[in-house]
Design goal:
- The complex is a heterodimer of chains A (239) and B (366).
- Chain A is 39% helix and 27% strand.
- Chain A is α/β, with parallel strands linked by helices.
- Chain A has two domains: 162 residues, Rossmann fold (3-Layer(aba) Sandwich); 69 residues, no CATH class.
- In chain A, helix 3 runs parallel beside helix 6.
- The radius of gyration of chain A is 17 Å and the shape is globular.
- Chain A starts with a strand and ends in a 5-residue tail after the last helix.
- Chain B has 366 residues and is mostly helical.
- Chain B is built from 15 helices and four strands.
- In chain B, helix 2 packs across helix 12.
- Chain B is 72% helix and 2% strand.
- The chains are: A alpha/beta (239), B mainly alpha (366).
- At the A-B interface, helix 2, strand 6, helix 5, helix 6 and helix 7 of A face helix 7 and helix 8 of B.
Chain lengths: 239, 366
């Protein structure tokens, strides 16, 4: 079943057009990668879905409902959580307070408590530092915290913008294995923007490649990894 | 995961968490008691020997300044937005109360509430406009608003321009009051506003505002409604400053464009909020008192006070950007943090290393 469906989405910032008719579907329970070079429109696509940027034309359907022009807080309530790029954490709040903030829209306090324990199990590093301030964590830990905060909203769809940016390779592997576990155990659908195409295609089921604001290629992640064009442009030549 | 290089620390057990929560509650109670004592002191002031009628009037003016600064501090302290035009809301409050008193002879308390409500309404509309502007552009927008209000009261006949509106002596609940009575009215509203700010900051609204201030993107992606909470903050802020404006107009029984079209009110109350420290309850109280009392201390050099205010503002921004109160509170906060840390370590008692053997021996054989 299709959870999210984008139809010829156009968007931009002032005079600059970032998306020139992006169309793709995300199936429920899938783990989908969104690839492309800098400026291809990956982050903008996520921002349009989560309501941070308004599309100029095109449609977004989520669970069959039209979504264009909703505000970010409405989107969180509808079940779409966005983990923005660049470790946006609350620097003056403790780690566990940051995580509670993710559950801001939830009313089920028992479920929130359970999910807090789950996130701390998933990222033991955060458990060790539960009482430290978000601003005192290392870059990688802040990224884990931002992802954990996204999970705390218990979204149906989790949007992740560059989860591996500036992280040590062993941490990248840890994060992706945690994401895979969440995807499988909670059937949480994920749309992941990644620069690191290699890691992204290894850990997802399906992938879309954006080029100058349009979907240029798509296919099962396994196939994309063997696609000649993808190998040459994104996986560093000989693959 | 490579987590061993910095020593794994277990998180607290239920026992230490309860101790920490208890400690935090007692700190909040201590703060509250201090605030109550402060107000008790202000309440007793007119009974002090040597206290004269006109002093009550001056003290009331200081309180009015403080209230106006409390309004500003909600914006600057808890949402991080800077308004250079709150004098406009002060004027709206003053004129609303003055006109209602002149034409409908309403009660003083009602006048203050109406002044606050009118300023709050205008603040809400302005908020919806200004919150679309970012950083310095918003500051310039609010400055323009203050000038706009000044132009209106100068030129629209209803407001009687520079001739001003003169009012009959104040009556509250049917009683005519003197300077001391007005002082108590101001003190009452001041206490209400302080209690309101105290509980607002600790409420869900306060947390949402602070989340937006600290990281707008992170707060939004957690589901905090940015436009709603910022507009709410602007409305509350304008309401409080407007109520202060109503008191400011009524205490003098006179409201004129000569006073309220002046931009210096806006600057003064912003300086008061920033110098004191706008993210703290005591901040605008200390800052407001400083700005209001400075001309008195300078006496014949009162005109010099603008220069001194500027110097103090620059010094505060350089050496204590979070305000004077933050510097004063630092040692107390450090002490409380130490106590919290000790409470957190309390339950790890048995894990403490045993004293070295040599020491034990020494004690055993004195």
């Amino acid at each position: 079943m299709t959870l999210l469906s984008l139809q010829s989405l156009h968007a931009g910032y002032g005079a600059v057009r970032a998306l020139h008719g992006v169309s793709f579907d995300v199936a429920e329970g899938a783990m989908v990668a969104l690839l492309g070079v800098n400026g291809a429109g990956k982050s903008t696509t996520l921002k349009v879905i989560s309501g941070m940027v308004r599309p100029t034309s095109g449609t977004i359907r989520f669970e069959g409902k039209a979504l264009e022009g909703r505000t970010p807080n409405q989107m969180v309530r509808m079940g779409v959580a966005h983990v923005p790029e660049g470790r946006k954490v609350f620097k003056d709040l403790a780690v566990f307070e940051n995580l509670r903030m993710g559950a801001y829209t939830r009313k089920d306090s028992a479920g929130v408590k359970q999910d807090l324990a789950m996130v701390l199990d998933l990222f033991p590093r955060l458990r060790e530092r539960a009482k430290q301030l978000g601003g005192n964590l290392s870059g990688g830990e802040q990224q884990m915290l931002a992802i954990g905060r996204g999970l705390m909203a218990r979204p149906k769809l989790l949007l992740l913008d560059e989860p591996s940016l500036g992280m040590a390779p062993n941490l990248v592997a840890d994060i992706f294995s945690a994401l895979r576990r969440i995807n499988q155990e909670l059937r949480m659908t994920m749309l992941i923007v990644e620069q690191n195409a290699h890691v992204a295609l290894k850990n997802t089921t399906y992938g879309y490649v954006l080029q100058v604001g349009k979907v240029a290629l798509s296919g099962a992640s396994e196939q994309l990894r063997r696609n000649k064009e993808v190998v040459e442009s994104y996986l560093g030549g000989q693959g | 995961m490579a987590g061993n290089e910095e020593g794994v620390r277990p998180t607290g057990t239920g026992r230490s968490e309860a101790a920490i929560a208890r400690l935090k509650r007692s700190f909040a109670a201590q703060n509250f008691v201090l605030v109550v004592l402060f107000f008790l002191l202000l309440f007793m002031m007119p009974f002090a020997p040597g206290f004269k009628g006109w002093m009550a009037g001056q003290a009331a003016l200081v309180i009015i300044y403080i209230m106006a600064a409390q309004g500003v501090s909600i914006l600057t302290g808890y949402t991080g937005l800077v308004s250079v035009g709150h004098g406009g809301f002060l004027a709206i409050g003053a004129y609303t109360a003055a006109l209602l008193t002149k034409y409908f002879a309403i009660d003083l308390a009602l006048g203050v509430l109406a002044g606050g409500a009118m300023a709050g309404f205008v603040g809400m509309v302005m908020g919806l406009i200004f919150l679309r502007l970012a950083g310095p552009f918003m500051a310039i927008g609010t400055l323009g608003f203050a000038f706009f209000v000044g132009a209106v009261v100068n030129n629209v006949p209803l407001f009687e321009g520079r001739d001003g509106i003169s009012l009959a002596p104040n009556r509250i609940f049917g009683m005519q009051i003197d300077d001391v009575g007005f002082y108590y009215v101001c003190l009452g509203f001041f206490a209400l506003v302080t209690l309101f700010v105290f509980s607002l900051v600790r409420s869900g609204v306060g947390r949402a505002l602070k989340a937006l201030r600290d990281s707008e993107k992170a707060a939004q992606s957690s589901g905090v409604n940015r436009l709603f909470y910022r507009t709410l903050a602007f409305t509350i802020s304008a309401t409080i400053t407007g109520a202060a404006g109503a008191l400011n107009g009524l205490i003098a029984h006179y409201v004129s464009a000569e006073v309220y079209s002046d931009i210096w009110y806006s600057v003064d109350i912003l300086v008061a909020a920033v110098v004191g420290g706008s993210a703290m309850l005591m901040g605008p109280i200390v800052g407001g008192a400083f700005v209001a009392l400075l001309p008195f201390f300078l006496e014949t050099l009162a005109d010099f006070s603008f220069i001194l205010k500027g110097v103090v503002l620059i010094a505060v921004l350089m050496f204590a950007p979070a305000g004077i109160c933050e510097v004063i509170a630092r040692p107390f906060r450090a002490y409380r943090r130490r106590r919290l840390e000790r409470a957190a370590q309390g339950e790890r008692g048995p894990e403490r290393p045993a004293p070295p053997v040599a020491m034990v021996r020494k004690e055993a054989n004195p």
